[in-house]
Design goal:
The chain is an alpha/beta fold and 337 residues long. It has eleven helices and eight strands. The protein has helices spanning 32-42, 53-79, 86-102, 119-128, 145-159, 178-195, 211-215, 220-234, 257-263, 284-300, 316-329; strands spanning 16-25, 106-114, 131-138, 167-170, 201-207, 239-244, 271-275, 305-308. The longest helix is centred in the N-terminal third of the chain and has 27 residues, at 53-79. The model has no long low-confidence stretch (mean pLDDT 95). The chain binds ligand L6N33NVT and fe (ii) ion (2 copies). Fe(2+) binds at residues 207, 285.
Length: 337
Amino acid sequence: MTSAAPPDHPDVRHGRVGVLLINLGTPDAPDPGAVRRYLGEFLTDPRVIEIPRWLWRPILHGVVLRVRPKKSAHAYGQVWTEEGSPLAAITRRQALALQQQLGDAVLVEHAMRYGNPGIAGALDRLFAAGCDRILTAPLYPQYCAATTASANDAVFAALAALRWQPAIRTLPPYYDDPLHIDALVESLQIQLRQLDFEPQKLLLSFHGMPKRTLELGDPYHCHCRKTARLVGERLDIPTDIAFQSRFGRAKWLEPATDTMLAAYPGQGVTRLAIAAPGFSADCVETLEELDIRGRDTFLSAGGTRFARLDCLNDSPEGMHMLEMLVRRELAGWVPQA
Ligand SMILES: C=CC1=C(C)c2cc3[nH]c(cc4nc(cc5[nH]c(cc1n2)c(C)c5CCC(=O)O)C(CCC(=O)O)=C4C)c(C)c3C=C
Ligand SMILES: [Fe+2]
Ligand SMILES: [Fe+2]
C-alpha cells in the first residue's frame, strides 16, 4: 500500500490580495461602560504606556479607569453621530471608497487596533476569502511606536496563531510623501476657499506623546515637524506647529495646542485656522478637543474667528492619496494601473 498524496486543499480559494486599513479604535458607545472597556484595552498596551506594569496597574485601575471614562464619555457624546463614533464611521467609509477605487482585484477590510472591528477577525475574513497576500495599512502618516508599531504588533500577534499564514506587507509612514503633502495642501486650500477665510495663522496640531519617547529615539516628533514644514512651505499663510491631547503627569511634546490658542489673541492673532494633519480621520481629539474646547479657549482669550479644518477623511483628495499609496505597495501583487 502506498500512502495517500498530501491533500492540496482544493476547497481553499487562494491567490487573492487583501488590504487591511487599520486605525486606532474608539468605544462602541458614548457611555462610561463602553469607554472604560476601550480605555482598558488601549491603556494596557505597553507600546502606549511605557512605565513598568507593577507601577502602572494600580494607577490605571485605581484612578484612571475610575475617573476618565465618565469625562471621556461626555466628550464622545458631544461628537457621536447616527453612524456611531466619527472615527469608526469615517474609517468604514474610507474602506468602502478604497474598495470601489481598487476594484475586484483586491479585497479591502478595515479594523481597529483597540475595540471593534478587531484586527484578528478582519485578517480571518480576508484569509477565508482567499487572500494569501495582505497589505496592512496603519493609517498614521507619522510613525510612532504607540500607534504604527502597535498596529503591526497586533497583526503579527494574530498571525502567530495561524498554521498557514498569508504573506504580509505593511504600509510605511507617509508623513513626507508628496502624495500626502499634495493632498493636505489641496484639502486645506479647498476648505479655506469654501469658508471664504483668510486666517492670519494656520496652526497644525498633532497628537502629543511623552517627551521621554522622543529622547528614546521615536521618530514621531521629527515626522510631525517635517509634515508641518512641507505643508507650511506650500501655503501663503504663516504656519505654527503644536501638540495636543496631553495625558498624565509626565512632560509631553511642546508647545501645547491649548497654550498656543490661549496666547494668540494677546499676540494680535485673532483670525485663526487649525488643522490636524496627524489624524487621517476626524475623531474625538479633533471634533471635541479642537473644535469645541479649543475654539472656546481661543474665542474666550479674544479671538474673533476660528476655523477647525477637516482631516483628509474620505475626501476625494484623501482617497486619491490612499489609493496611490496602496497601489505602490501592491506592486508585483496586482497589475499596476
Ligand atoms: C495620531 C497619533 C496618536 C498618537 C501618537 C497617540 C498617542 C497617545 N495617545 C494616548 C492617550 C489617548 N489617546 C486617545 C484618543 C486618540 N488618540 C489618537 C491618536 C494618537 N494617539 C486618536 C486617533 C484618538 C481618538 C480616538 C477616538 O475614539 O476618536 C484617548 C482616548 C480619548 C480620551 O479619553 O481622551 C487617550 C486616553 C497616549 C497615552 C499616547 C501615548 C503615546
Ligand atoms: Fe491618543
Ligand atoms: Fe524631532
